[in-house]
Amino acid sequence: MKKILQILTILTLAWGSAIAQDVYYTKSATLKLNGELDGKALQLDTRQLGVMLDYETTEIIIRFPLSSLKSGIDSLDRLIKSSPAEVVFDGSLSLEYINTENHPPLKFTAEGWLTVDKSKKLVTGEGELHHLDDAGQIACMMGMTLPLNLKDLGLRNPVPGLKDDFEAVITQAVLKKDKN
Fold first, then answer.
1. CA distance linking residue 151 with residue 114, whole number of Å
2. Residues 29-62: tens digit of each pLDDT
3. Residues 170/148, Cβ–Cβ less than 8 Å
4. Average pLDDT score over residue span 60-79
5. pLDDT value at position 103?
6. For residues 129-164, b (16+ Cβ closer than 10 Å) or e, as one string?
7. β-strands 106-116, 86-93 pairing
């Protein structure tokens, strides 16, 4: 019985390692939200963006605390900073799988659920994944855009003069191999 438990433990650990081999992530990507406030361009950004991408299934999870967004406008930044909400995109890319060895730039669409506080909406975006040769543990760089609308997301516009339409742009998501 003891030997069976040892074998099961080894098999479980080996299976878990095999699954984790195809998961890539970053915790230091950049997200920019481009919009309009009082007829002028508005850009909010955060460097607290986490991206996890499974190369086998192309499932992707992107998350950041809403309070991490910065606009450079004191009144707007104070309003955002007080938000306890986390923003989460949970979806997949329109690729069968992602070759971790070498591949040309891969264009994709991303579809998934965007959750902001209690609001949850299906959204679609586009992007590209670029393989990096001889970059150590870095496998790829990803860029992705998502058009967003506050009303469509079921979110109240908190600032007079703020347009409902935004574009979310992930500019430098460097995907590293998961060490778990």
1. 13
2. 899 999 999 999 999 999 898 888 888 899 999 9
3. no
4. 94
5. 82
6. bebeeeeeeebbbbebbbebebeebebeeeeeebee
7. antiparallel
Q: How far apart are CA 52 and CA 175, in angstroms?
A: 8
Amino acid 174: pLDDT: 64
Residue 2 tokens read as 């003891």
Looking at 11-25, 90-104, 111-125, 130-144, which range is the least confident one? 11-25
User: CA 153 → CA 29, 103, 149, 177, distances in Å?
Assistant: 23, 35, 6, 33
Contact 81, 72 (CB under 8 A): no
Give the SS3 label for residue 94.
coil
CA dihedral 6, 8, 9, 12 (to 10 degrees): 160
AA identity, residue 91: G
pTM, whole model, 2 decimals? Answer: 0.81
Say how far apart CA 166 and CA 36 lie, in whole Å: 8
Predicted confidence at residue 57, as pLDDT, reads 92
